Amino acid sequence: MSDWQPRIIAFLCNWCSYAGADLAGVSRIQYPPTLRVVRLPCSGRVDPLLILRALREGYDGVLVSGCHPGDCHYLSGNYVARRKFAVIKAVVEHLGFEPGRVQFSWVSAGEGEKFANVVAKVTEDIRKLGPARRMAAAEQVK
Amino acid sequence: MASLAEKLRDCARGLLAEGKADVVIGHAAGTLPMRSAPCFVRSAGEVEGLIFDHTCGANLAKYLVKDKPRGKKGEAAKPEKVALIAKGCDGRAAVQLVVEGQIARENVIIIGVPCRGVIDPHRLGEAVGGREVLSCRPEGESLFVGGDGFKEKVELREVLSECCLSCRHPVPPVHDVLVEEAVEAPGGADEFAAVEKLAAGSPDERWAFFEREFFKCIRCYACRNACPMCFCGECFIDQNDPQWFGKSTDPGDTMLFHAVRVMHTAGRCVDCGACVRACPVGVDIRALAKRAEKEVRERFGCEAGVSLEEAPALAAFDEDDPQEFIL
Amino acid sequence: MAVRKLSKKKLKKLLEELARDRVVYGPVSSDGQVSFAEASGGELALEKAISDRPPKNVFFPQAEVLLTYSGGETKDETYTGRPAAVFGARPCDARAFAVIDRVFLGEPPEDPCWRARRRDSLVLALACNRPASTCFCHWMGGGPFGEEGVDVLLTDLGSEFLLKACTPAGERALGASKVLQEAGEDDLAASEQLKGQAEARLSGSLDVAEAKRALEALWDEGLWEDFSSRCLGCAACAYLCPTCHCFDVQDEGSASRGRRLRIWDACMFGLFTKEASGHNPRTATRERLRQRVMHKFSYFPDKFKAVACVGCGRCVRACPSNVDLREVLRRAVQEAVKR
Amino acid sequence: MNPYMPMPMRVKKIIEESDDKTLRTFELAFCQDEDRDSFNFLPGQFCEVSVLGKGESAFGIASSPTEKDAVRFTVNRVGLVTTALHYLKEGDTVGMRGPLGNSYPIEKFKGENVVIVAGGFAFTTLRSLAVYLLHPEHRSDIKGLTVIYGARMPGLLLYREELARWQKRDDIALHLTIDRPAEGWDGLVGFVPTVTKEVAPSPDAAWVVVCGPPIMIKFTLPVLQEIGFPPERIYTSLERRMKCGVGKCGRCNIGSKYVCTDGPVFSFAELRELPEAF
Asked: Can you list the pairs that A117-123 forms with residues at least 24 positions away whose Cβ atoms lie under 8 Å?
């Protein structure tokens, strides 16, 4: 179990976090290979459906990342998103998904290092939680 | 002194007779004890059927957006002027629909009626041990319930919808007419007590609770269809490309259906409890919905349907919204 | 036909006997809801006038795997388990099995899934001594002691059940049991008396053939507008109906591995008839509610020679906006007479 | 035999039918010999074709029973399953159940004239019928064969090479039309109902089969009746959303008729008696 690596879906905004991930790559900063990246035009595009569908598919965790407040390419996308994130996190955790399964971050295009740190932290958090088991247990049609 | 029903009939009669409203949507006596039926009154002569009491649980604002009349191809239907007999939560839902651009303010007349709480048929059933209720008479804070071989007195608070017990808006905060002065809300209970109790438990305990609740779900979508805020032309759960979740009663799929519906109605839900009362199998949908409401209230200070000026909580933002959870 | 008696104390024994070569289902209470589930040792909720959910899931689960596929291989997943015994269903629900038999088994090809679960099944129905106020089985040609679709009819005599075989299968079941006693003339008389009392409790009357003609005559009338304007278009009525049998077929999985399910569906949903092109023959609640009622009282009788409603009253109780099917039928008859 | 179990079929050939690439014809070959040997159908019948993981949809069979090597379907890309079909490559496997439903009343056509009126991509099962009737074994069973077929523009006419061959034959009267004049088109121009009126096929000892979009049917029907075709000699094929295809799932009913088992082919005399048919 000790070398188990979680599978994490990452929804990254095109303008900042995706570029940040790119920078981390070209700068050859080491971070865990746990992410499956989905590029979105803006973190404001994140619908709870995307996150819950990822959990339904059995992913061990979800990371959503966008531009820092004030830096949104579309001016206010991430501000609106931030409110949504709070509700998503609250409801998902209330439903019984462990805190840490779904995480959010702001990473700018210049923060390659921060991106790597975020991935490392999220990966470690989810590693501690262990593999997703909620949905695996639920999948039972009579 | 005229009864509440008489006053609201007078009001409806006046609006119809003067041509201020094309239709009055209200409640009429139902065919079962403690059940009312939504009714659509189009002429002054028909107002006699209108009632308002503890049985009027449907949120009538739903009918402002259900089966929206469609005009001929290319032209909008002529909007009807609708007068809505609205308890607090019906009125709030109507306001929220205006705020969200679903209906025009000038096309709806909100007739406020003071609500003393509505009965939840599931709680009534529980209170009498699942026996069939054949008669029911409210008296003060009690309800005299009769059935096949039994007569019992139950406390009204025991059978009112849970949402009514913490109600803070017995009359619509925004209304055009107020049929009778506001009463004291039956509320008083801590509306988030149940949420906090669950939150105090472990994730595993919460999961077990919700799995058990949603396992009951038969996916008839009565909750969604009774909800005035569920007006999407195509619900995410009905989409097939992409198909977000499976359509079977697999608990994983049903739980996530309810979870997403709660998130989609977050900041818009007026906690009318119509979903809970509509559910034929007694799923405690509010147990999850209240968590979203709590977050919206505490974090953003927003409440749905209390003001025509306030944007929906999740369509607005403040640059200083707290973000302690974001890395 | 054989008639026997069973002491209520020995009910468990009878269920054990049945469980030897069958899966026994009975009304089980959970969270205040009575539905049909495997009755393995638990208490049966036989007191309730009618279960909250019908027993149709025994032969027609809400979701059922038709086939699975993996790496190019497709596997038929039709039920191959033991036959079922349904204990404690009410006569209306038993009659509903016979209704669904007509469509699933009556016309070729047979529905293999219904056939597989229905094969060699045994229905032990419990007669209704005290029907609920919403029961209208007598309008539909049934009754609280009705025997259609029933293999063994049980009557609650107080401390004992009277068991009457209604089919050869029921006869065999009674013959095979070792916990039954002989029944006497007085037991039969007691049962007859209860039957009379039960029938007297049922209220109103309606000629279902007249209702059929009325509905057909009122195809385009305001009746539908009135009821559909408050109908929310959910499927509470259809999913709690013992005779509704429409289903959807859905694939779940990837291209290489997954399953094909059949899942209950309901004509009250807008999507039910919506074609991929966007065209929908039934665009509004009005047409869909009409379809549901007409299917039960006109189309089904025309095609399968039976009314597709057994008068259990579940839809009446479950409807969130009080669209009362009895009211629809009564109004139709009244309005047709007026014309 | 489980009617819900599909037969495996191999995609033998994919033919692009229309210029806008929304219509493709799929030639499916049986993977199992016993399936091929037991597959007998008549023009007008349909099959449920499935892409595992996506679902099943009903398609009228576009090939003729006289074309033994494969079963053909022409698919318009509109929804989930049809899109999945359009993504298929030659050599891929799909599932097929059928043949289902009834067929055009070929027995009745014996010794009489047959008129086929088609609009848009509803031509598929009518192509099956035409090819069947033109086959040397059957051509002498009937007298005249007239085909009136219209599409919005030339690029949307199905089976164009075949149509070109038919135009050279003298045992079929083919009238092709498009809605509006187009460059390089020297054939008829006009909507199907109008062209039908101009062609005015004789109703004497004749049967007409008409398929197309609802609006076309609506306007063609009065034209045919005006020409003198009685409703019981006018046939059409209906479409409804279907799932099981065998009269169980309750989805495709029109009144007490199920389109999947009582149809899809109905005469207008039958449809007149049904509510909601159009």
From this structure: A117/A31, A118/A63, A118/A65, A118/B327, A119/A10, A119/A31, A119/A32, A119/A34, A119/A35, A119/A63, A120/A31, A120/A32, A121/B327, A122/A8, A122/A61, A122/A63, A122/B327, A123/A5, A123/A6, A123/A8, A123/A31, A123/A32, A123/A34
- Predicted-complex ipTM score: 0.92
For D197-244, how does the pLDDT look when each residue is reduced to its tens digit (9 = 90+)?
Answer: 998 888 999 999 999 988 888 899 999 999 999 999 999 999 888 999
| Secondary structure of B250-277 as H, E, C letters | CHHHHHHHHHHHHHHCCCCCCCCCHHHH
**Spatial separation of the C-alpha atoms in residues B92 and C166, rounded to whole Å:** 58
pLDDT of residue B72: 47
Q: Is residue B71 very low, low, confident or very high in pLDDT (cuts 50, 70, 90)? A: very low
What are the tens digits of pLDDT across the range D232-245? 999 999 988 899 99
Chain C residues closer than 8 Å to B37 by CB: 230, 321-323
What pLDDT score was predicted for residue B1?
A: 58
Asked whether the beta carbons of C149 and C95 are under 8 A apart, the reply is: yes
- Please tell me the distance from the alpha carbon of residue D167 to that of residue D176, in angstroms, as a whole number: 9
> Is pLDDT at A139 greater than 70 in this prediction?
no
Q: Are C27 and C126 spatial neighbours (Cβ–Cβ below 8 Å)?
A: no
Q: Residues near C96 by Cβ (< 8 Å), separated by ≥ 6? A: C54, C56, C149, C242, C243, C310, C312
Question: What does the buried/exposed string (b/e) look like for B31-51 if buried means 16 or more CB atoms within 10 Å of the residue's CB?
Answer: bbbbbbbbbbbeeeebbeebb
Work out the mean pLDDT of chain D and round it to a whole number. Answer: 92
Q: What are residue B13's DSSP bridge partners?
A: none
Helix/strand number for chain A, H first, E second: 5, 4
Looking at the complex, does the CB of residue B312 fall below 8 Å from at least one CB of chain A? no
Which has the minimum average pLDDT: A47-56, B234-243, C229-238? B234-243
Q: What is the mean pLDDT of chain B?
A: 91
pLDDT value for B243: 87
Q: Are B160 and B118 in contact (CB under 8 A)?
A: yes
| DSSP reduced 3-state for A141 | coil
Chains C and A touch (3+ CB pairs under 8 A): yes
Question: For C100-126, how does the pLDDT look when each residue is reduced to its tens digit (9 = 90+)?
Answer: 999 999 989 999 999 999 999 999 999
Q: Is the pLDDT of residue A141 over 50?
A: no
Indicate the pTM of the whole model. Answer: 0.93
Q: Which residues of A touch C (CB under 8 A)?
A: 141-142
- What is the CA C107 to chain-centroid distance, rounded? 19
Q: Cα torsion for B210, B212, B215, B219, to the nearest 10°?
A: -50
Q: Which chains are within 8 Å of B by 3+ CB pairs?
A: A, C, D
State the Cα–Cα distance between residues C47 and A5, nearest whole angstrom: 54
Report yes or no: C31 at the B interface, CB cutoff 8 Å: yes
Euclidean distance between CA atoms C330 and C334, whole angstroms:
6
User: Residue A6 pLDDT > 50, yes or no?
Assistant: yes
Instruction: Look at residue A99 and tell me whether its pLDDT is greater than 80.
Output: yes
Nearest CA to B225 among B275, B288, B281? Answer: B275
- Distance of alpha carbon D192 from alpha carbon D201, whole angstroms: 13
Q: How many CB atoms lie within 10 A of CB C251?
A: 25
Please give the full DSSP string across B64-100, using - where no structure is assigned: HHTT----STTSPPPPPPEEEEE-HHHHHHHHHHHHT
Instruction: Please check whether residue D243 is in contact with residue C248, taking contact to mean a CB–CB distance below 8 angstroms.
Output: yes
Distance from CA of D255 to the nearest CA of C (A): 6
Tell me if B32 and C49 make a contact (CB, 8 A cut-off): no
Q: Tell me if A43 sits within 8 A of A77, measured CB to CB.
A: yes
